[in-house]
Structures are given as C-alpha cells and as structure tokens.
Automatic annotation (TrEMBL):
Domain called 3-dehydroquinate synthase N-terminal: residue spans: 62-174
Record's protein name: 3-dehydroquinate synthase
Organism field: Polaribacter ponticola
Stored Pfam families: DHQ_synthase, DHQS_C
InterPro entries: Dehydroquinate_synthase (IPR050071), DHQ_synth_AroB (IPR016037), DHQ_synth_fam (IPR030963), DHQS/DOIS_N (IPR030960), DHQS_C (IPR056179)
Primary enzyme class: lyase
EC number: 4.2.3.4
Keywords: Cobalt, Lyase, Metal-binding, NAD, Nucleotide-binding, Zinc
Gene name of this polypeptide: aroB
Span of domain 3-dehydroquinate synthase C-terminal: 176-316
Signal peptide: none
Described function: Catalyzes the conversion of 3-deoxy-D-arabino-heptulosonate 7-phosphate (DAHP) to dehydroquinate (DHQ).
Length: 352
C-alpha cells in the first residue's frame, strides 16, 4: 500500500514502514527512545516490533495499565515522572505501541513534556489504526468524561502494520469496525456496503480507505471548525453511553465501538425524524449493527443519567448539544439541535 501524506507527517503501511522509522531515527539523532506500552502490548506486540527497530540509542520501555479507565491525568503524571527519572529531554522520542488509549494518552504526554517532544504512533488495534493514530488529536478523560483534556498535535509518522491485529480479540476488531461504518455512512457508502455484505472483506483495503478518508477530511479542516465534525457521527450520544457504562459499578464496560454503534443507530433515528433520512435505511443500519454487536438493553431508568452526561460533551456550545445527522448516506448536516424527548425516543427505538 502506498504512503498517505498527512498535513505534516506520513502514514506508512506494512513491514516496509520500519525502514522509514530507521531513517528518521538516524536523521533526528534522538537522545533516548521511550516506548509506551500496556500489559497486553508488551507481551504480544513488543516482541513483533523490537526486531524492526534499528538504533544504537538507549531504549526505555514504559508500561501503563490498559483500559479507558486509566486514560487520565494521573497516568500521564506517572509517565512524565518516569521519563524525567530516566533522563528524558527535548531530544527524546516517544513511540506509542498500542490501541486507542495508548495512542491518545501517549501523544498528549509527548506534546506536553518539556513543551513537546517528537512521537511516533504505531497502532496495534483496528480502532487505533483507522481512527486514533491519525488526525492529530491527543487527549485524556476527565473522570468518565471522554477526551476533555487534550490538544491537537501531529506525530512524526504513523506506522500501520496489520500483523498486530493477530494479537487482539474479535471484540476489539468489532470495536474498530464501528469507526469504518461511520466513514461509510458519512463519506463513502461503499465501506458500509462491504461490511453489510460481509463477503471477502479485505481488512487492508478497509483500513487504507478509512485512513484516506480521515486524512482527506482533516486536511480540509484540521481543527474541527466544520467538515471534520462529520467524524463525530454516532459519537455524541455514543460517548455519553460509553461514559455511563464506564462509571456504573453494576454494568460491564462497553468498548468504544460498541457504544458508538448504538450512537449511530440512535442518530440515524433522529435523522429520520428531523431530516427525512429514509426509514428503511434506519432499519438497515440497525440490522447491520445488531448483526455485528450484541444487543445492549438501555434501561429507561438510566436515560436521565445518559442525558446528563451529554451536557458535558466537548463539542457543546453555549450549553447546547450538537449532533451530526444524515439527510442520506454520504449526505450529512452538522450542528443539529435535538430535543431531549427525541433523544429518549431514539434510545427506545434501539431497544425495540
């Protein structure tokens, strides 16, 4: 696969990417190389990665606990302290080797340490390959509120090697699939149709097209003033649902993709009520989602708590929740205002 050139960095694919990494290590002459991992990627991905790292520089591995619950400032402080104790300076490099949490948090850590050190993203999950590793967003959660603290910062490069996907569970693959569905519904319906038909899926092609779409959008709107908002489809309500399950002691946490899939179904329903998005397509999206993901029973008693979390969505303006809705596939409308009654109605529709 050919390299995709983002605004200030390249996205390389497969094994030949590591030669590009070796080249930049020689050119930049970093003082120390830090590799950020969690307990999963140190066991399953690090052994695949390290033979490809050609350097005579000191390599230090920093391990954090996995999971969205650890994507917070406390973890960042721990990483900053370790980098400091190990003599990190402005000429250090941080390599993020992991999924969305490692990628988001690692980019944020690098961007803030000594006002910014270089970092390289090497995503190891489908979700991080098609979404978190590209686009220049970094950040952490504030409590259960998603991505409240962060900044825009670009890596030196991104390396997407699908061999790492052999190390993740089917549930994680499905989590990343939700982001591909999002690209399909908002930008290129062929992606959605391929997943719907589920015949001879080429994961490399799906990843490449997803990254290509995100890059096209970000190049036009890097700071999310207009077009980039379409990448939030399904995420406005989905993030609130994800946060609610994260803070609920009596419920199993949802993956990001599971929550976003619910959000897409609900937001398609809202679209049908406000923008005349075809009802048969609402049913089609719901059927595809329920074919891939287990049905989650959203209890009516929990609706008010989910709505309360919506009020903290980082895209809100003047206390107003803003949704991305659809007129049709590949035909979107941003900054849509939705009454609470319709949001509740959409969750009830998902439950049917």
């Amino acid at each position: 696969m050919k390299t995709i050139q983002a605004v200030t960095y390249p996205v390389h694919f497969q094994k030949e990417s590591y030669q590009e990494l070796s080249n930049i290590l020689k050119i930049k002459n970093y003082s120390t190389i830090f590799i950020l991992v969690d307990e999963n990627t140190i066991e399953y991905c690090y052994p695949k990665f390290i033979p490809n790292l050609e350097t005579d520089k000191t390599i230090e591995v920093i391990e954090i606990d996995s999971g969205e619950i650890n994507k917070n400032l406390e973890t960042c402080i721990g990483v900053w302290n370790v980098i400091t104790e190990l003599g990190g300076d402005r000429k250090s490099l941080l390599i993020t080797l992991g999924g969305g949490v490692i990628t988001d948090l690692g980019g944020f850590v690098a961007s803030c340490f000594k006002r910014g050190i270089d970092f390289v993203n090497i995503p190891t999950t489908l979700l991080s390959m098609v979404d978190a590793s590209v686009g220049g967003k970094t950040g952490v959660d504030l409590g259960v509120l998603k991505n409240q603290i962060g900044l825009f910062a670009n890596p030196e490069m991104v390396i997407i090697d699908t061999d790492y996907l052999t190390t993740v569970t089917e549930r994680e693959i499905k989590s990343g699939t939700a982001e591909i569905i999002k690209y399909g519904l908002t930008y290129d319906v062929n992606l959605f149709n391929e997943i719907k038909d589920n015949k001879n899926l080429n994961i490399n092609d799906l990843i490449f097209r997803s990254v290509e779409i995100k890059n096209e959008v970000v190049l036009q709107d890097p700071k999310e003033k207009n077009l980039r908002k379409i990448l939030n489809f399904g995420h406005t309500l989905g993030h609130a649902i994800e946060s609610f399950y994260l803070e609920s002691e009596d419920k199993e946490n949802l993956t990001h993709g599971e929550a976003i899939a619910i959000g897409m179904v609900c937001e398609c329903y809202m679209s049908s009520k406000l923008l005349n998005f075809p009802k048969e397509k609402v049913i089609e999206v719901k059927n595809v989602v329920l074919t891939i993901y287990n049905k989650i029973n959203l209890l009516k008693v929990d609706f008010s708590a989910i709505l309360e979390l919506l009020k903290h969505d980082k895209k809100n303006v003047n206390g107003q929740v803003n949704f991305v809705l659809l007129n049709d596939y590949e035909d979107y409308k941003i900054d849509c205002k939705v009454d609470e009654s319709l949001i509740i109605e959409s969750m009830e529709f998902y439950n049917l």
